[in-house]
Amino acid sequence: MKYLQRISILYLTLPFLLFLFGWFRLSIAIPISLIIIFTIYQLLKPNSSKPQFTIHYSLFTVLLLTGTWLFLSGLGGYAFQNWDHHWRNAVFHDLINFDFPVYYSQPESGPVKMLVYYVGYWLPSAIVGKIFGWGVANLFLFLWSWLGVILVTLQLSNFLKTSAIKTTLLLIFFSGLDALGVLFFPQEYPTLFPPVTHLEIWSGSLQYSSFTTQLFWVFNQAIPAWLCITMLVTLSEAKGLRDSSLTSFAQNDIKWLLIFIWSLCFFFAPLASIGLFPYLLIEIFKKTNLKSLFQNLRFDLILSSIIIFLISYLYFSSNTAAQERSFQFIPFKEFIFFFLLEGGILWLLLAPSKYRDPRWIVTGILLIIIPFIQIGSGRDFVMRASIAPLFYLMILTAESIFQKQAKQKLLILIYILLFIGALTPLYEINRSIYRTYEYYFILDEEQRIQTLPKPATSLQPAGRLEAEHPNRLVADEIVSLEFMQGELAENFIANVRQTLYYKYLARR
After folding, report:
1. What is the DSSP code (8-state) at residue 195?
2. Most buried of 110, 372, 396, 485 (most Cβ within 10 A)?
3. What is the DSSP letter of 454?
4. Which residue intervals of 238-269 are DSSP H helices?
5. CA-closest candidate to residue 83, choices 200, 252, 172, 245
């Protein structure tokens, strides 16, 4: 389906253009947007081969699978939302209810409090919300996310040369062996029974999230990161872009497009882009050598990539509280069990067929070192920087099982690990089904809570996540970040008065 890459480029660049005009002075936004639009035109302008779109019967099954998956994730507020949605709904509310950029206070002197977060993914839906209201905005967000997941699964199935149904099921159910972690290291929470607990917190501050968990908790970073990774993978294997729907490039030109895609990943999910960066280097140097690195320069792509990265960096870095960096000590026994259960065993099983593949080598290195790095508060870096290596681990696994690259005995062991790992996303799905069914079919009209609560000023992580915000589907206790205080709020709100972004670039 040769329209997929065109749609993906537009899908990733539209939010950045909206961000430019909402968060930057017009004297900056207009010339930069013209550069980006020119670059997009150069990529998408018609070429000699006419893009074709064919509808296969499996597409309808994929639409059903992904649509159900998204419904159960809580996107749109139609099914149970996990605890993290308190924060994501608050961001979405403020993007709709406040002018761009979102200032919470802007006095002549003193702190200038501003929303500084990865807001790009919400912007198309927020524009819709400003016009049509909260309900329509959530419907659009659901449809926008559905489109993103479809773009991921269809392009990935083309790359893996297998059916989109298999690719979709792998994306939904691929996970580490969290159930074994809970079994071997029993604690008060999580437990294997009832089968609705959040298994991935079995190792405390360490967590590698399954793709279902990423969708159910941090969709705004996960979906665009998946799409950027998928495009990097598929374009890297193209023999020039003549194999795609984009304009024809020579083989050595593709590296500049890959850098452009990576810069967009940084805009949507900077921590995920850090984990993706080593794979970008692999693809660049696989296609060229140092001598020819600066040949076939594409100045439009180079300039656009630099602009997207710098603009995003200046905005994100204005939140100094979320930029704290450190190394954390992890006892060897705790680390080794975490590594082995959260992908290490599967990675080792792939060694006989993949040990020469630089993607396999980098994946293992990243899964080993990421737990020791901390950026910001909490365990966000571990969970987000691991998105890329986990995605590549899934791709390497898919190549082994769909293309029969591993020996039969190893394939049996890989399938066993995949089935055990599938318990983690099944528990996430079960929790959503349980709470959603309870809301629609057990609670009566009087028991269901539908109105917004009073705005919270602080919010602590939930205990038993299956009991979060009882009698309500939507996790919406914060309402607006304007009133929030505490360490978690600092991930979203910053005093930007002394920053370069506010002084010279910000729209007032």
Report:
1. T
2. 396
3. P
4. 254-268
5. 200
